[in-house]
Specification:
It is a single chain. With 378 residues, the chain is of the alpha+beta class. It is built from 11 helices and 13 strands. A hairpin with a 3-residue loop joins β12 and β13 (370-377).
């Protein structure tokens, strides 16, 4: 089936109540590519090494070991060999490492995604680049433009501050752009090197949780507008999106930024927000398009951690296997922040691709506290 025919089919099936305007042209996901650092470790091999970095000499490591055992992570990739982290003396050195490794991984992911889509770097009209694990000016996308051969007039949008939600929000913003520029090609590039934000000599529970849960990686997604038909096999198609910002929750998730860099904030109340509010808003979004959770055959959920995944499944009353791909991603690479939903979407396309016409939801949550939901049609 040609892409244009699949777009027409996606739109014809996107029924909605009369009070809601019909969705605009669908956006095709043409390619996704994840790039992981070469330093892969078993979770058990990282536990004591991270304890050496974060805990005082002779400290009780029982909590550290419980957190690592219960994080749902079996293996992770790190930007540097684990023995090099003790040599990162300050934020500047960590940020330099983020920039060097991030450029390499970003180039690998973006070049690979374009090749998969059958495109050249000069075909890119918009590049959205997101990272919350380092800062640079010029930004990473500007530094990559010459290395990859992007056009001098390429539109660029570096994004900082969305955190884990940026993979879903980035795809949603690509869709917004392509609705107004249907002949264009837009790319989302996520570069997240979470290990480089680990705070040495910090035995707070939040820092230990982050040290048990997060991994490093980059991912690139190529999207094409409805007037820019790509090769057979493209998809899924973005039909609609919804953002939600939850009032008075700014303290739940994010960074405290100080002399040592990004000190993580992870509040135990995050699953409560998911339980008390997220389900209600998601059901309302689906109802606006004449759908319920029973109509969704493909779930692409950011793996915020075991408690968040379990709470999402319980709150939405999902089938037992609905979030399997998210659980597998968490186990194999850890939480990659904004790159995780792209990694999970790639795995869904490659290994568990739904039947044509299947409705899907891609969703994530992040600092704000906020959520982003993307309605997909396969």
């Amino acid at each position: 089936m040609r892409v244009t025919a699949m777009v027409d089919d996606a739109l014809s099936l996107a029924t909605a109540p009369s009070r809601t305007p019909p969705p605009g042209p669908a956006t095709a996901v043409a390619a996704i590519r994840t790039a992981l650092p070469p330093y892969r470790y078993a979770q058990d091999d990282l536990t004591e090494a991270i304890g050496d970095l974060c805990l005082p000499a002779g400290a009780d490591r029982a909590l550290l070991r419980r957190l690592h055992a219960s994080a749902g992570v079996r293996t992770r990739c790190l930007a540097l060999p684990i023995e090099r982290y003790s040599d990162l003396g300050d934020f500047g050195q960590s940020n330099d490492a983020w920039m060097a490794a991030g450029l390499e991984l970003g180039e690998e992911a973006l070049a690979g995604a374009l090749q998969e889509a059958g495109l050249e770097p000069a075909d890119v009209d918009l590049l959205v680049c997101t990272s919350i694990t380092g800062i640079a000016a010029p930004s990473l996308d500007a530094r990559l433009a010459g290395r990859l051969g992007l056009r001098p007039d390429v539109k660029r949008l570096p994004v900082f501050g969305l955190g884990c939600v940026a993979g879903a929000a980035g795809l949603a913003r690509l869709h917004d752009y392509l609705r107004g520029h249907p002949a264009d090609t837009a790319v989302l590039l996520s570069i997240e090197l979470c290990s480089l934000t680990l705070q040495r000599h910090d035995d707070s529970r939040a820092n230990l949780v982050a040290g048990a849960l997060f991994g490093d990686g980059a991912a690139a997604l190529v999207a094409r507008g409805s007037g820019n038909a790509g090769p057979d096999g493209a998809g899924p198609f973005v039909v609609a999106t919804r953002s939600h910002l939850y009032p008075d929750t700014e303290q739940l998730l994010g960074w405290d930024i100080g002399p040592t860099g990004f000190r993580v904030v992870i509040d135990a109340g995050v699953p409560d927000i998911v339980r008390d509010h997220f389900g209600r808003h998601l059901h309302a979004f689906l109802a606006d398009h004449g759908l319920t959770t029973d109509d969704i055959g493909s779930w692409v959920c950011h793996p915020g951690g075991p408690k968040v995944l379990s709470t999402v499944a319980d709150t939405l009353d999902l089938p037992g296997d609905a979030l399997n791909t998210a659980w597998h991603s968490l186990a194999s690479v850890g939480n990659l922040s904004s790159a995780s939903v792209l990694h999970i979407l790639q795995k869904t396309r490659e290994s568990n691709r739904p039947e044509p016409g299947t409705w899907g939801l891609l969703l994530a949550m992040g600092p704000g506290f906020c959520s982003e939901v993307v309605l997909l049609r396969w």
